[in-house]
Amino acid sequence: MKPEEYPSHDRVEIALAGRSNVGKSSLVNAIVPLKRLAYVSKQPGRTQTINFYALDERLCLVDLPGYGYAKVPRKLRESWGPMIEGYLRGRDQLRLLIALVDARHGPTSDDLTLWEWARGNGPELLAVATKWDKVKKSERAKRLREMREALGVEPLPFSATSGEGRDPLIQTIRSLA
Known about the structure:
Distance between the termini: 26 Å
Helix content: 25-40%
Shape: globular
Number of strands: 6
């Protein structure tokens, strides 16, 4: 997707970034009142373009293609990096980048690369630990500590399945409008 194909509007944009199958589309569906707005797949790499979701007259969620493993042709996968970086560097409406990290595994080297790049080049950052419902209760404090140490910030635990973390995330997003 090229910048001239982006929607023309005055909405504040909040972008979602993370590896393939981290739960970006599930997060969209969990926080937007419409049913199944974003397509969710078990197969990594189904989000292949930048998808814009207008929440209201003031806010827009932006679902970016995932990085890392995806069952798509290599050339297509390689085109995503420049497309994502172009969006993150050149979009004036972008106010927040939500970096999604799978709570079961913690930040990957790709997650850390995105985080470090965005700290110096991008908008405000928020770390969200997805798939929180799949982390054993006895492991949760350890997982949060590991992510906090790796990223330098406290991640927001979130589960699209149980709804945990949904309200604080919506409040953070709404505060930007």
